[in-house]
Input
Amino acid sequence: MKGELEVVPKASLCISRPTSSASTQTSQCVILKVE
Output
């Protein structure tokens, strides 16, 4: 879990955005990670 928090610094932004579907949240997180 510690590693995830560290490897999810930008992804946090995507999580901040409440989406109607959790699947969309993950998709946005992946895009942020690639960027």
Observations:
- The chain has one domain: 2-34.
- Helices lie at 2-7, 11-16, 22-34.
- Residues 22-34 form the longest helix (13 residues).
- Residues 2-34 form one domain.
